[in-house]
Amino acid sequence: MARDLYEILGVPRGASQDEIKAAYRRLARQHHPDVNPNNAEAEEQFKEIGSAYNVLSDPDKRARYDQTGSVDDVPQDPFMSGSMAINDIFDMFFGGMGGQSSRGPRTAANGEDLQVRLNLTLKDILEQTEREIKINRRAGCPDCNGTGVEGGGQPDRCQQCGGSGVIARMQQTFIGSVRTQTTCPVCQGTGTIIKNPCAKCRGAKRIQETATLSVTVPAGVDDGSTMRVPGKGNDGVGGGRPGDLYVALNVAEDPRFEREGQELHAAYEVTYAQAALGDEISIQGLDETYAVDLPHGTQPDDVLSVRHGGLPPLHGGRRGNLHIHVRVVVPKKLSDEQKELILKLAHAGGEPAPKGDKGGLLGGLFKKKH
Q1: What does the pLDDT read at residue 87?
Q2: If you compute the radius of gyration of the chain from its CA atoms, what whole number of angstroms results?
Q3: Which has the least CB within 10 A, 251, 259, 260, 368?
Q4: Are 230 and 244 in contact (CB under 8 A)?
Q5: Would you say residue 276 has pLDDT above 90?
Q6: Are the C-beta atoms of 203 and 148 separated by less than 8 Å?
Q7: Distance between CA atoms of 108 and 115, rounded to whole angstroms?
Q8: Does 298 score more than 90 pLDDT?
Q9: Which regions of the chain does DSSP assign to beta strands (E)?
Q10: Which of 40, 167, 44, 28 has the alpha carbon at shortest distance from 93?
């Protein structure tokens, strides 16, 4: 069942036209979608309020509704129907705030931000480093000093809007005369016209250039981090401030290491003999080679650590450690002599005799004698 129109506007059935108009304006502002962005319920309420006011604001429509209690036979004004453009009402109430500027000419515009990517290696970030990067940016035109006028002169005032950047007009609406403002279509809101455009920038006030900048990358940066370089984006227009440059850092992975913050992890393969008897192994780090003692009796997946062989914290400091994960390599192919020696080792250590691969040397040696 459809809701009562008086209930929608929150007025009694005997309400005057002024009371209905005041209630509508209050509710329309409260539930306007621009005031309630991404709120589907508010948008539906706004349309419902508009439809109710469409009927109750017209004496003939209101009388027919009061007689029948239904809006089915009441002719609808398309201007106030539920499908009306939402910004129309907002513009009438707020003088163009629903999308049109009423603050005068737009003489200044800030420059846009830019982003570039800088590729680095783990070795690069061991210390603070300076890098040169090239960027394509929009710079103020040097020939016209950013005015867009040949020779650096000033633009002419727009005759259409008188330099205000907006066109004001009075509009007769269902609530009376309303003053509206729209962006001037001639000057696009700037309030000025360039009659003699600069030959270099063609009146755009900026030109495209390739600039080379030096940036300082701190030690220990993480992959995916971003540095902000203030004022190195596109130049502004008409006195607007320049944009910023954002440098996205791509720290490449090193196949020899796995990074965990400041710590580095690496796998190192040793033989059974090395693990059992101990040895001195040579580990290639990021920037130097380390001689590391492999203790006798080292087990698979034991971890040896090299102090300060990792990465520094952000902006420098004592480096993390390099952790060596030991992998004991078991040979896949053995000569008969090697098999016999391994067997003797097992006997000497009191180990259970391995069965070996059937039919091989070990299989023959351990075959039961009858």
Answers
A1: 44
A2: 40
A3: 368
A4: yes
A5: yes
A6: yes
A7: 23
A8: yes
A9: 114-120, 129-140, 156-157, 166-173, 176-183, 192-193, 206-217, 226-229, 245-251, 258-260, 263-271, 279-284, 289-294, 303-306, 322-329
A10: 28
